[in-house]
Amino acid sequence: MYSYKYPRAALTVDAIVITSKSDLPEILLIQRGNEPFKNMWALPGGFIDMDETLEKACKRELLEETGLKTGRLIQFKTYDAINRDPRHRTITVVYYTFIEKTEEVKGDDDAVKAGWFPLTGLPPLAFDHSEIIGDFVTEILK
Predict the structure, then answer these.
(1) What's the pLDDT tens digit per position in 84-112?
(2) Residues in the chain with pLDDT < 50?
């Protein structure tokens, strides 16, 4: 394995799982169990493993944190603001999928809870997840 002398950014994935494009779609969020932003709500997601693709990492994180299995995920956007994560330089690739209706979910791994929220009634969100969801609503749902 080659070791680099210069610092590198960490790479994460986040999942937007949303009920079909109805008048009142709901989005899946997790309540974080660890710092930073402990106990705040966020999109399910996390760091990729070295031996997996981005989509595979996103499916794994979604399953680990919520118990939800999903089919194909569609790549939405990449978010790379310098200070988006207070721990270190982190870049995230966001994926999304639509499901017909809410399914049973439970917080697991490093998520305390998992739950469905109407897009019009979101709790305060960790990281830049408000921006990510806002972009998604503007670019995909409108």
Answers:
(1) 999 999 999 999 999 999 999 999 999 99
(2) none
CATH class (in words) of the domain with range 10-141: alpha beta
Residue 82 three-state SS? coil
Residues 6+ apart with CB under 8 A from 74: 95, 96, 97
Q: Which of 40, 63, 62, 41 is nearest to 117 (CA)?
A: 41
Sorted by where each begins, the domain ranges of the chain are 10-141
The helices-and-strands tally (H runs, E runs) of the chain is 2, 7
Structure-token pair, residue 79:
């978010």
- With beta carbons less than 8 A apart as the criterion, state whether 42 and 28 touch: no
Tell me the whole-structure pTM to 2 decimals. Answer: 0.94
